[in-house]
Specification:
heterodimer, A: about 240 residues, TIM Barrel, seven-stranded parallel sheet, 10 helices, 7 strands, about 45% helix, globular, B: about 240 residues, alpha/beta, nine-stranded mixed sheet
Chain lengths: ~240, ~240
């Protein structure tokens, strides 16, 4: 079983044709991914309210049980976030997505803490975009919020060597490794440093082709137990799949 | 591998191999590491490629280029001559000593050199006059235009799929412009290059040891390129560029 805990649906403003949920489904087929949790690009880059609603319609049209959703929220508009969290619920919607760059909200900020607390109170784990040293800031937020379950998307990208530091700061943080420019030996290094119980597989599809993370995982030569945990078990537990 | 082509049937050449230490990441890749990569580090033997020196790019071109020549000889690869873009006089001397057919690697972004610097322009002009193939690091949007209009053969090693539109705009009228597969990681990026520019423009590059080379290999193998385009990207285009076809 393979669970992709970091994926998207919708068109990007780059030179690529990724706007159709059919592409998500084709990539699930091609790479043997059993469950993929997606957020709407429109919700991340433009408007969480219209983007979440658009993804809701896509789910209704596609009716593919492999696809689950993240409710994207913006820390600057928690009233809208609260409405969407009350409306978009399990089993289809299994977590919350927060991007830091597009919301102009640093992870260490009070606004981010309020957003993370709102999602936690809704009983949902949160996938947060981390890039650079802010992966440690996310761990500090996790430590400060009772009951939080936070996933560090990209596990800090080029700051991946800070993952052990972040892990030491909190028991409420997980790490997801997708990155379009993966540095060599990263996943093996992180697994050896923190163990397999905190890493969850993610692709960033349909922005990034799944082969990129698959290749990095294959390069890490996971043991059977590591594979079971990283590719499915950890995410299934965390997201309640 | 989850999908794609018959890896064993594919001959692979790697356009982007580096030996030495990267001072930015503190990662070191030595000759034995590269030998392991070539032997089947990603489940696919790599039978040829172009090798450059990080020592040459980040510290001393002369001793670094000597290191590249020696490592390439050991590994059966083509060495690239790195030119120091902050030192036109030294680069000019290195080019004067270089035989025809020398493969050049330029890393201006690592060397804090801008495309507007006169020394960089002089290096590009000299490479064009000698008809030398240039393996070019750096953001293709920033550095790419500096190579245009000269009939140069260039392999852009750091072209990211976010910048694919810029790449196509740049390379459409430059038949000598090629692009490494390494960062063309959108689900349709390789296919767009082939559709827009032709199957003779892609060259496989891994930067193994620094970049996760297996990701680059699996991206190529699992793409939806047809067999002819995949073979050309895997080896044919690079072998042709460096005169080994």
């Amino acid at each position: 079983m393979i669970v992709d805990a970091h994926a998207h649906w919708g068109p990007w403003f780059f030179s690529m044709e990724t706007g159709s949920l059919a592409l998500n489904r084709a990539l699930l087929d091609r790479f043997g991914i059993d469950v993929q949790v997606v957020s709407a690009i429109e919700a991340i880059t433009y408007d969480p309210v219209s983007g979440n609603a658009a993804l809701e319609r896509e789910f209704a049209n596609a009716d593919d049980p492999r696809l689950r959703g993240y409710v994207t929220i913006d820390p600057r508009d928690l009233a809208a976030a609260e409405r969407d969290l009350g409306r978009l619920t399990r089993p289809r919607w299994v977590g919350v997505k927060i991007h830091t760059h597009y919301t102009a909200t640093p992870i260490a900020s009070g606004a981010m803490r309020d957003a993370l607390r709102l999602a936690t109170d809704a009983g949902l784990p949160v996938l947060v975009h981390t890039w650079g040293g802010d992966v440690v800031d996310l761990a500090d937020q996790a430590a400060a919020i009772d009951g939080a379950r936070l996933i560090a998307g990209h596990m800090g990208a080029n700051a991946w060597r800070l993952v052990p530091d972040a892990r030491r700061r909190s028991d409420r943080i997980w790490f997801e490794p997708c990155w379009s420019q993966p540095e060599a030996h990263r996943i093996r290094w992180v697994l050896d440093a923190i163990g397999a119980d905190r890493l969850v597989f993610g692709t960033d599809a349909t922005l990034i082709d799944p082969s990129v993370t698959f290749g990095a995982v294959h390069a890490a030569r996971l043991s059977d137990s590591e594979r079971a945990a990283v590719m499915a078990g950890n995410a299934a537990d965390l997201l309640g799949l | 591998m989850s999908a794609g082509t018959n890896a064993a049937a594919l001959q692979v050449w790697d356009a982007d191999l580096l030996v030495g230490r990267d001072p930015v990441t503190a990662v070191r890749t030595a000759v034995p590491d590269l030998a392991a990569w070539l032997a089947a580090g990603a489940g696919v033997p790599i039978v040829g490629g172009v090798l450059g020196s990080l020592r040459a790019m980040t510290f001393d071109a002369a001793s670094g280029n000597a290191e590249a020549v020696e490592a390439a000889r050991t590994l059966g690869l083509v060495p690239s001559l790195t030119l120091e873009t902050r030192d036109w006089l030294g680069a000019r001397a290195a080019l004067a000593a270089a035989p025809d057919g020398t493969v050049v690697r330029l890393a201006p972004q690592r060397q804090d050199c801008l495309p507007t610097h006169p020394g960089f322009a002089a290096i590009v002009r000299a490479c064009a006059e000698r008809d030398l193939v240039v393996f070019a690091e750096g953001d293709v949007r920033v550095w790419g235009p500096a190579y245009a209009g000269r009939g140069l053969r260039v392999v852009f090693l750091d072209a990211h799929f976010y910048h694919l539109g810029d790449l196509v705009a740049l390379a459409a009228d430059e038949p000598g412009f090629h692009v490494s597969t390494r960062l063309l990681n959108g689900p349709d990026s390789l296919e767009i290059v082939v559709d827009e520019l032709g199957s003779d423009r892609l060259v496989f590059g891994s930067r193994a040891g620094f970049h996760e080379g297996r990701s680059a290999v699996e991206r190529l193998l699992t793409s939806t390129l047809d067999d002819e385009a995949r073979r050309a990207a895997a080896s044919g285009n690079l072998a042709r560029l460096v005169g080994r076809a």
